[in-house]
């Protein structure tokens, strides 16, 4: 299938509806231990039943060290002041080194995924960071011929309940210790 078939040229592949965020992101996470959901719209806390656009979901309540920000053509996951950026392929040419420097940038093809698949990818990634004590990020530049440098990332995650293993999300390698 051609990736263009899922989204129109003018559409952002991560322009999720509130219902999609509730069904495919919040619902799979809300009953997990150590998860306290807090939803924001326009920097104000809202309930899941309000009509305002969901912009940020904190997963650790008022600690605000683990959260996701939905911005249409970009979604970012924040863990202890570190950012993992998911950028619509159609918008990547608008990003420069200064936009992505010191951040992890996912290089998988998002436009080939449905909204449900993208949100479940976020759930899978977030699951690795629940209960994290410390993280350390290493990057290796693999291509600097674009508007920003493409890298492979290795993220070492220290958490109490993790078995030692490595999980790969395209160019992002998570080492759970």
Brief digest:
The chain is α+β, with helices and mostly antiparallel strands and 177 residues long.
Average pLDDT works out at 93
Annotation, overall tally of beta strands: 11
Largest sheet: 7 strands, mixed
Task: Give the strand line-up of the largest sheet.
Answer: 2-1-3-4-5-6-7
Query: What letter string, H or E per element, gives the SSE order?
Result: HEEEEEEHEHEEEE
Gyration radius, to the nearest Å? Answer: 16 Å
Write the layout of secondary structure elements.
Blueprint: H1 18-30, E1 38-41, E2 44-46, E3 56-58, E4 66-70, E5 74-79, E6 82-87, H2 97-100, E7 104-106, H3 115-129, E8 132-143, E9 150-159, E10 165-169, E11 172-176
Parallel strand pairs: 6-7, 9-11
Antiparallel strand pairs: 1-2, 1-3, 3-4, 4-5, 5-6, 8-9, 10-11
Helix pairs in contact: 1-3
Descriptive report:
The protein has 177 residues and is an alpha+beta fold. It is 18% helix and 35% strand. 21% of the residues are buried.
């Amino acid at each position: 299938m051609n990736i263009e078939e899922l989204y129109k040229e003018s559409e952002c592949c991560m322009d999720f509806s509130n219902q999609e965020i509730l069904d495919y992101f919040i619902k799979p996470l809300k009953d997990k231990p150590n998860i306290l959901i807090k939803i924001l719209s326009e920097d104000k806390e809202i309930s899941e039943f309000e009509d305002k656009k969901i912009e940020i979901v904190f997963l650790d309540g008022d600690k605000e060290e683990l959260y996701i920000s939905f911005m249409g053509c970009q979604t970012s996951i924040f863990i202890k002041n570190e950012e993992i950026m998911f950028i619509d392929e159609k918008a990547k040419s608008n990003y420069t080194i200064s936009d992505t420097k010191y951040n992890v940038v996912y290089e998988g093809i998002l436009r080939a995924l449905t909204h449900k698949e993208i949100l479940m990818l976020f759930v899978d990634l977030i699951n690795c960071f629940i209960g994290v004590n410390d993280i350390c990020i290493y990057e290796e530049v693999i291509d600097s011929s674009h508007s920003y440098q493409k890298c492979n990332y290795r993220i070492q995650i220290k958490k109490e309940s993790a078995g030692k293993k490595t999980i790969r999300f395209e160019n992002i390698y998570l080492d759970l210790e």
